């Protein structure tokens, strides 16, 4: 089963490799991993999407907690939460395709942020599923590149992951 | 006061009351060695290979309750230390390893003797640091000792670039450590401990399973008191030997792959299992599926939450320091008049005694060939069961664990988790330095000893009167045993040809060497060796080449599926 694990860790050199090394050494999956400093520059916030049985995910959270630089770990998928991912997609936009792609971007509430005679770069934010459906809605032959950030997640309501 | 980085390193070690520092100098640690030269509080032990420095620090730590400390240079110094660090990591031994690094300005430029030490050691340390500023040295070393010793112990590495050891700053040693990201649990959950006691009091076929955590957590006294009060059978893992006296009838011996018949049977058929500082690893319970096939309630006390329900589902998890938790369990037991049902306990003990009558560790010592088990049995007798025994890895290690009956904790020093050949002799050096005047035996084989035999020179330099008890079967014995059982007697590369004359080799290093060929000479040789209080004596016992370690549970099989002797093959 898919899990979204959120952690707060010391913003120190090597902390990221401790986390990624843990996943590779113990054979856990990483579907995506995003990390950046928080409003407190001494801390980083990381969102990891992983999958595994309940036993495995329990081990993952325990092992993450054991890392000395990890301050807090929460499995967001245990309760209501929000996930968002950013995608930048460069497409070939020439001739009759230009109008069609523009329309499609509008339907998905994407924004065209770079334009040339033959290409568009579209910025799109949403859940993984929404980004997937946008990609499949486009003619595969027109896609030049896609860049996805991996998801960021946060719990709904009052629940806060803070030090 | 303003000091150089190197002075600060040494001052920190003094503040931590480090009496022995095991190490080997090199370019990147020259400033530190220069400061070492100018003082006499921290005594440096010059080893002959960095792996041995870490093993010696490890043996020192295992036999005391202190942190072992090693110092190595950058590049090959650090990579040689890795095996020692991984050995300590697998067995949760508190170490601080200080490594030199190339100067800050050339890090990342493939400088001479540069490796990414922090990167290489990351998966086999509890934590590591690269010091980037001279002002961080004191704080980092303070943290390193704190991390190594608290929570689940482990090795911590501090990598210090050479230029930083030459720079100066104001020195003040921090008195306390606070880390928002690291707060190990000490006390167990009271409700869970009460639940555990209820389960124990209701048990009909109880079993206590004692791991290395009991030894490392200095909880042997409380555990022994608890087990005796309850009248339950107990078993030790390889790492837990000494956690409960081996000569006590309530102890049914070591369990696991080479555990006793009665220990493995009692473990499997118990209805309530109390696991203390143990981790249900593959060498202990064999197949988890087979182990789970018999229903039982499991109480698991451990300081590390990730050890709980990792391989075996647990009913009552208790996270905390084992000594604290056992103390609370004991006072709850004292406060109640309830006791386990004596009748069913009596029936259970009768069953265990029946298993015990199989006498699974019996062997026949004939007139001609020395049986390796016999040597260990005599070693136990001659030392009155009170020596510190270190071991290498292989058959001799298992025989030492089976036949030397450890009644006290911290007497049995071996590489349990990583299984590092070459551990025995250097770890014995650390043990002997920590316990001058106490008998220290290194049980080894002719293959293992050669992985760190150069340390005989260190033993000479520091006058360490270790007794090397070598069981020489001219084979990589455990490899040969597996090849006999699983690979159709094809002894691929497990025979040792061109062995040195070990007695003369020991003499060449300035020690005493004795070769023993006959069973009748075993005891005399051991007595002679231990009577030489100030000499290292190297005993080369020529033992039966074909002897195997029994009982044996084949890898991946169930715990009750034991080969008891050669006839079972």
TrEMBL record, chain A:
Described purpose of this protein according to its UniProt entry: Catalyzes the conversion of 2 pyruvate molecules into acetolactate in the first common step of the biosynthetic pathway of the branched-amino acids such as leucine, isoleucine, and valine.
Pfam families in the record: ACT_AHAS_ss, ALS_ss_C
Entry EC no(s): 2.2.1.6
InterPro entries with a match to the protein in the record: Acetalactate_synth_ssu, Acetolactate_synth/TF_NikR_C, Acetolactate_synth_ssu_C, ACT-like_dom_sf, ACT_dom, AHAS_ACT, AHAS_small-like_ACT
Domain of life: Bacteria
Gene Ontology cellular component annotations, sorted alphabetically: cytosol
GO BP annotations listed: isoleucine biosynthetic process; L-valine biosynthetic process
Organism per entry: Zoogloea ramigera
Protein name (database record): Acetolactate synthase small subunit
Pathway the protein contributes to: Amino-acid biosynthesis; L-isoleucine biosynthesis; L-isoleucine from 2-oxobutanoate: step 1/4; Amino-acid biosynthesis; L-valine biosynthesis; L-valine from pyruvate: step 1/4
Subunit composition and interactions: Dimer of large and small chains.
Catalytic activity: 2 pyruvate + H(+) = (2S)-2-acetolactate + CO2
The protein's enzyme class: transferase
Gene Ontology molecular-function annotations: acetolactate synthase activity; acetolactate synthase regulator activity
Alphabetized UniProt keyword annotations: Amino-acid biosynthesis, Branched-chain amino acid biosynthesis, Transferase
Keyword Amino-acid biosynthesis: yes
Family: Belongs to the acetolactate synthase small subunit family.
All residue ranges annotated as the ACT domain in the record: 4-78
């Amino acid at each position: 089963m898919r899990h979204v694990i959120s952690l707060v860790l010391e913003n120190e050199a090597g902390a990221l490799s401790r986390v990624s090394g843990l996943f590779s050494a113990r054979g856990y999956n990483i579907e995506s991993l995003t990390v950046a400093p928080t409003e407190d520059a001494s801390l980083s916030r990381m969102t990891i999407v992983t999958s595994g049985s309940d036993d495995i995910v329990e081990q993952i959270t325990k092992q993450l907690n054991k890392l000395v630089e990890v301050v807090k770990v929460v499995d967001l998928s245990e309760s209501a939460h929000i996930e968002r991912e950013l995608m930048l997609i460069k497409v070939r936009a020439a001739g009759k395709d230009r109008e069609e792609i523009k329309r499609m971007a509008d339907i998905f509430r994407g924004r065209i942020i770079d334009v040339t005679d033959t290409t568009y770069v579209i910025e799109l934010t949403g859940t993984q599923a929404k980004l997937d459906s946008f990609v499949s809605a486009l003619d595969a032959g027109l896609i030049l590149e896609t860049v996805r950030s991996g998801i960021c997640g946060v719990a709904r309501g009052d629940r806060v992951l803070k030090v | 006061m303003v000091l150089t980085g190197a002075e600060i390193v040494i001052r920190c070690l003094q503040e931590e009351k480090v009496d022995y520092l095991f190490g080997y100098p090199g370019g990147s640690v020259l400033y530190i060695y220069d400061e070492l030269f100018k003082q006499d509080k921290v005594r440096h032990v010059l080893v002959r290979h960095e792996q041995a420095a870490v093993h010696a620090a490890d043996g020192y730590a295992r036999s005391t309750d202190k942190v072992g400390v090693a110092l190595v240079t950058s590049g090959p110094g650090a990579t040689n230390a890795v095996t020692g660090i991984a050995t300590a990591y697998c067995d949760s031994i508190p170490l601080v390893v200080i490594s030199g690094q190339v100067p800050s300005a050339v890090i990342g430029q493939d400088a001479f003797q540069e490796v990414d030490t922090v990167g290489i050691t990351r998966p086999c340390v509890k934590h590591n640091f690269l010091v980037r500023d001279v002002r961080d040295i004191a704080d980092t070393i303070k943290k390193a000792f704190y991390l190594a010793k608290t929570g689940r112990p482990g090795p911590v590495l501090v990598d210090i670039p050479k230029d930083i050891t030459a720079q100066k700053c104001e020195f003040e040693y921090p008195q306390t450590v606070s880390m928002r990201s690291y707060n190990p649990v000490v006390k167990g959950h009271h409700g869970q401990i009460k639940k555990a006691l209820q389960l124990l009091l209701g048990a009909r076929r109880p079993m206590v399973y004692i791991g290395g955590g009991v030894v490392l957590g200095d909880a042997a006294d409380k555990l022994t008191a608890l087990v005796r009060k309850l009248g339950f059978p107990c078993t030790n893992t390889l790492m837990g030997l000494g956690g409960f006296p081996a000569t006590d009838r309530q102890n049914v011996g070591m369990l696991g792959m080479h555990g006793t018949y009665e220990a493995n049977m009692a473990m499997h058929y118990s209805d309530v299992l109390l696991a203390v500082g143990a981790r249900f690893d593959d060498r202990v319970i064999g197949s988890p599926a087979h182990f789970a096939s018999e229903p039982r309630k499991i109480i698991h006390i451990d300081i590390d939450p990730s050890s709980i329900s990792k391989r075996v589902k647990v009913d009552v998890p208790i996270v905390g320091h084992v000594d604290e938790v056992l103390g609370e369990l004991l006072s709850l037991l004292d406060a109640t008049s309830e006791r386990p049902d004596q009748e069913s306990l009596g029936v259970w003990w009768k069953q265990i005694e029946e298993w015990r009558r199989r006498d699974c560790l019996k062997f026949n010592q004939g007139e001609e060939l020395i049986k390796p088990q016999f040597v260990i049995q005599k070693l136990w007798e001659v030392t009155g069961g009170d020596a510190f025994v270190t071991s290498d890895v292989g058959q001799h290690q298992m025989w030492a664990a089976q036949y030397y009956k450890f009644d006290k904790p911290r007497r049995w020093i071996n590489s349990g988790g990583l299984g590092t050949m070459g551990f025995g002799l250097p770890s014995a050096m650390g043990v002997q330095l920590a316990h001058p005047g106490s008998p220290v035996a290194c049980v080894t084989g002719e293959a293992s000893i050669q992985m760190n035999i150069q340390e005989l020179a260190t033993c000479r330099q520091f006058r360490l009167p270790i007794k090397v008890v070598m069981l020489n079967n001219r084979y990589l014995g455990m490899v040969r045993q597996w090849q006999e059982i699983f690979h159709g007697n094809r002894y691929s590369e497990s025979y040792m040809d061109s062995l040195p004359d070990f007695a003369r080799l020991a003499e060449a290093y300035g020690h005493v060497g004795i070769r023993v060929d006959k069973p009748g000479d075993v005891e005399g040789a051991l007595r002679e060796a231990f009577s030489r209080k100030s000499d290292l004596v190297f005993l080369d016992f020529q033992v039966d080449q074909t002897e195997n370690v029994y009982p044996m549970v084949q890898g991946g099989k169930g715990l009750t599926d034991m080969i008891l002797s050669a006839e079972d093959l």
